[in-house]
Specification:
Low-confidence stretches of chain B: 121-141, 155-199, 215-246
Shape of chain B: rod-shaped
Radius of gyration of chain B: 48 Å
Number of helices of chain A: 9
Number of domains of chain B: 2
Number of strands of chain B: 5
Structural class of chain B: mainly alpha
Oligomer: heterodimer
Number of helices of chain B: 9
Order of helices and strands of chain B: HHHHHHHEEEHEEH
Mean pLDDT of chain A: 82
Order of helices and strands of chain A: HHHHHHHHH
Helix content of chain A: over 70%
Low-confidence stretches of chain A: 94-99, 179-186
Distance between the termini of chain B: 139 Å
Strand content of chain A: under 5%
Radius of gyration of chain A: 18 Å
Largest interface: A-B, 39 and 27 residues
Mean pLDDT of chain B: 61
Chain lengths: 186, 246
């Protein structure tokens, strides 16, 4: 039994204190999720707000059969997808044949970077790339699930992921070079 | 491919459980959306100015209608009162007629009985004689004892007495002692009172007072049942004080 079930029960009784506690418990993690999906801080804030409103309104639908965090995370991801779908910012059209291969050694640069920096690099990716990358790599969705959720083909999902990784590697290299330069100057 | 997997692994390690400080005061905005404050019930005419005008005109109409209706009622009232007065007059006329009929009938009966009494009884017996049943049965008719004699003989021990006499009638009546209070040997003592020609209850009380003069002691309590024998009506009057006063 999840240790947060009691908190959810209290929230279901409109306990303001419990609602605050639940928010404080997961807001940090969920804001990081929102920042990964969004292109800027304000958009991430909007997604977080909408997501938590959905969480509190849908608490009665929580089945008490899984982790509370996982449930809230799924709601956040869906909220982010809905947000960009409404804003027509999801452009995932590239076919798998056109995928470029990511440069090798990007993991090396990545491991040296702070999480905030990585998020900043991810935020620079196109919305479609960013979404697929987040869903596949960090949320563990399969290409089939991604294709269903985004309304695209599995092939497109795969190509988007490959492109996202290639672009990410390039950007990481650039930021590493910049970082190296700044180190040398210093 | 290996590089791809490594990249995924590093990304997960760096970002999977990463936390960032959410914007301040965001929770308050969320809670406002989740639990919207309950709106106070405000009458519609407070919210919309045009409704104020409509409400005001309704109020004026209601006041005007009340005034007009009250005036209409006032104008209708005299007619009703006159009708009532007319009805009262008719009712009193009917009552008077009925009383006149009753009086005529009573007079008729009285005169008939007076004649019979004249034929049967001595002239001095006609003037108020109360005779006990015991006395009637034990003694011959022409030697009935007077009420004074009866009081002296039997009724003095009684603590309560009831006289039943005709109400506004000239017909014969029965004067009766209450048997339940009688301590004397005779018990019920009815007596036939001949017609006195009385016209009112006051006259009857006067006669009763005269006849029960001897009962006006501290120990005795006298009450009268006044009723017309002809119509079977009986009125209970318990006024020993009145008798004392009179």
């Amino acid at each position: 039994m999840d240790q947060h079930y009691a908190l959810v029960y209290k929230c279901l009784q409109n306990d303001r204190k419990a609602q605050s506690e639940l928010y404080q418990l997961f807001a940090g993690k969920m804001f990081a999720v929102c920042m990964r999906y969004a292109s800027d801080y304000d958009t991430a804030s909007d997604i977080l707000q909408d997501g938590f409103v959905k969480v509190f309104n849908a608490l009665s639908k929580f089945g008490f059969d899984g982790s509370v965090e996982g449930w809230i995370r799924r709601i956040m991801v869906n909220t982010a997808i809905d947000y960009f779908r409404k804003a027509s910012k999801l452009h995932v059209m590239t076919d798998i044949d056109e995928v470029e291969v990511a440069d090798s050694g990007s993991d090396h640069f990545l491991s040296k970077m702070a999480s905030e920096e990585i998020i900043a690099v991810i935020q620079k990716l196109p919305q479609g790339y960013r979404t697929v990358l987040n869903m596949y790599v960090l949320e563990d969705y399969s290409h089939k699930e991604i294709s269903e959720m985004l309304g695209i083909s599995e092939g497109t999902s795969k190509s988007q992921l490959a492109r996202a990784k290639a672009l990410l590697a390039t950007q990481l290299k650039n930021s590493e070079l910049g970082y190296g330069r700044s180190e040398k100057i210093r | 491919m290996e590089d791809q997997k490594k990249l995924d692994k590093v990304l997960r390690a760096k970002l999977k459980d990463f936390e960032m400080a959410p914007p301040p005061m965001l929770f308050d905005q969320i809670i406002k959306q989740v639990n919207p404050p309950v709106q106070k019930l405000v009458p519609v005419w407070y919210r919309r100015p045009q409704m104020q005008r409509i409400a005001a005109s309704f109020t004026i109409l209601a006041v005007a209608a009340t005034v007009v209706l009250s005036e209409l009622r006032e104008s209708a009232a005299p007619a009703t009162r006159s009708n009532l007065a007319q009805f009262d007059t008719l009712a009193s006329d009917r009552r008077d007629n009925r009383l006149q009929d009753l009086e005529l009938r009573a007079e008729q009966l009285a005169s008939e009985q007076k004649q019979e009494i004249k034929d049967l009884v001595q002239p001095q017996a006609v003037t108020a004689r109360l005779v006990s049943v015991e006395a009637q049965t034990a003694q011959p008719n022409n030697t009935r004892e007077t009420i004074e004699e009866m009081n002296l003989r039997q009724l003095q021990p009684l603590k309560s007495r009831t006289a039943q006499m005709p109400l506004m009638a000239k017909a014969p009546a029965i004067v009766q002692e209450s048997p339940q209070y009688a301590e004397g040997p005779s018990g019920v003592i009815p007596a036939l009172i001949k017609s006195y020609g009385v016209l009112s209850n006051a006259d009857l009380f006067a006669i009763a007072k005269e006849k029960f003069q001897d009962f006006k002691t501290k120990e005795h309590y006298v009450s009268f049942n006044l009723g017309s024998l002809e119509i079977g009506q009986t009125i209970q009057l318990s006024k020993p004080e009145n008798l004392d006063e009179n």
